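Bumping with the actual sequence this time:
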Amino acid sequence: MPFKSAKLQPRLKGRPTENTHTHGDLIQLKHELEGLERLTNALDINILATLLLDCCRLKALSEGKQLHALILKNGLLKERYLSNLLISMYAKCGSLEDATKIFQGMPRKGVVSWTALISAYAHQGLKAEAFRLFEQMQMEGYRPDKVTLVTVLGVCSSPSDLAKGRAIHARLIEGGFESDVVVGTALVNMYAKCQNLEEARKIFERMTERNVVSWTAMITAYSRHGYGDTAFQLFYEMQKEGINPNKVTFLNVLDACQCPTALAQGKLIHFQVVNSGFESDIFVTTALVRMYSRCGSLENSRNVFDKAAERDAGLYNAMIAAYTQHGQRKEAMQLFNQMQREGIRSTGITYVSILDGCAHQAALTDGKLIHAHIVESGLDSDVIVGTALVNMYGKCGSWKEAHRIFFNILKPDVIAWNAMLAAFVQNGRGKDALQLFQEMQRKGFQPSQVSFVTILDACASLAALTEGKRLHKQIMDVKLDLNRFLGTALMNMYAKCGSLVDARKVFDTITERDEITWNAMISAYAQNGEAMEAFSIFNQMQQKGLKPNEVTFVGLLSACSHAGLVSEGYKYFHSISSYYGLSVTTEHYGCMLDLLGRAGKLQEAENLIINMGGTPNSVMWMTLLGACRVHGDVERGRRAAICVLELEPRNAAAYVVMSNIYAAAGRWSEVARVRKAMVDRHIKKEPGCSSIEVDNKLHEFFVNDKSHPNRDEIYAELERLMKLLKEAGYVPNTKLVLHDVAGEEKEDMLCYHSEKLAIAFGLISTPSRTSLHIIKNLRVCGDCHTAIKFISKLVDREIVVRDMHRFHHFRSGICSCKDYW
């Protein structure tokens, strides 16, 4: 007769049903296994089954293997019930290989065995294999039962699985199972996961019997799809029908509270949580912390955290994330340190959350401290943590460290590659980003939408039009949806490469346009000096019912500035707050300063700064200083320069512009004083650089640059051009050479400016009539502007120059800026 242990027998009743994993449970399981191993007589199958279920619940793989050995030793593997439980145990413990071996070794398989293995693959997220096993099962003559069909329904978890889900639904109807509450709930879950909420609701309404699990499934479906109000409505309807919410219900209805407008609803649910006795549950407590954070009530988040009966890593992670999401890095760091003091082990999520709060230059020291903790924990090569580190260092300006960490990630995924691409782009390393993008594809990674958006930004920064067009074709080839995010990135790329026609074509193909899309088109026209087109787009935007935001007016004021439309600029500026009820930002003031400065209204510009109400920043004073250089206002320029240097003592541009103002006025002693101050303070001027893309490669040139492999041909072409230009009437503007040297030397200095060298290279390297696209990192010089007008007419080419302020489109001797820049 089988042995029944008096100690073990009571555990057959009243076992915990939740998937909890406590230290005490595991110790008890170990003791019971030791007792079994000492037995010499036959083992009770029910006791073995109970212990296997405990191994499943506790995910105790080592103890499960001990039980497997005992079952083998006692010749009980032929018991199909135990074999099925072993399959489930190995699956729950993550050992799919062992689960498959048990299944393959079974002499007699049944529907339960097949279902157990299908469930094992489904549990590991291996959908294709689970579907294959389901088909194989039927081909071998086994008819799926209700449990099998419900199991396979659980595998249907995305829109691409909807057809399979419908087919299984038909099988359930055919078998007469649709009225079963478990089946109905599974169908609700399946349709919701497959993005068909309408069908999920129909199933729910047809159910003759509904329990708390059914209601929770429908509430969860609405919550996860962003229909919070409907989720709340169902939550209260459920209770009116006499069904009390359980823990899972509360977790999902709290998740429906996603914004400040849901705070009152969240507080009502919190009240019910307390009355239902779930406040002490750590999972519910964590959900409350997250809910209050999402609803903008950080104080309530912290109150819930402080009152928690117990705290684990999950609760700490939620509170740390709440602080970082609200920009309170110091509080997040204090909580992280408290977590360490309390001996709670940080997880990958802990590090990801707190690194998010360190992703700006001022927080680099804290970011490095967290990095040291990560290295100590051994998680630095983890793909998720490593990606967070790449993101943090990239946003802190440390792209080299980001690159080093990226190559330390053992198995980078597309998200990790995207983070590294972004780190390069954010730090002005567009060429490196393009190279990394190519490497990413060589290693077999398919670029995502985010990949394309990021790399298009790199093309925009480099004005790499050819590469940008190639990427556009690739996007079309892989049939990516040209939604507002990707479409706006394409528009921005074309606009910043000076190709307004292509930018507008993309704009016209985007079906779902939001404020960002319209603003991008307004900005594109503004940067390219097409003010009337910018105004037209603004009017169309309003006719479509979209409300402008602060960014919209930055584009409109920029358009006014580039076109010299002072009265229109004032009209838009005053309407920001008076008509549209928006805040006037420093960017708006900056645009107005630029507009007034270009128009020579320097007194109005200075008054605007003085009377703006807030504290002017260095950019505003620098804008006024630049205008003083253009219009030769020495004293006002000196005042502006003093204000810039008070805010940024090492601002090289302020020294250079002031030096140029003095030089233009012939005050050479003042020039010498400013330049000496720069030398004494080790402040270096940023050299002028012009670049041009030829054959998918970016070529850079500096003044008098002779480093290019084709320098002899470039200089010969430039000398030929200068001779033709002078014959056509071009006269070098030597007044723009702000050095105390002879006139002939001044002409030579003008001749070899970086933009002229880039154009000469473009002319000898591209077919005739091809347009040339040049990027200048500083403002294009007046003499080069005049020379390029002549060149465009002589060689019959369009030449597009993007400088630090705007675009210049040169055609047939005329510039789009109309000599106003």
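The tokens above came from a reply further down the thread. The CA atoms of residues 424 and 432 lie 7 Å apart.
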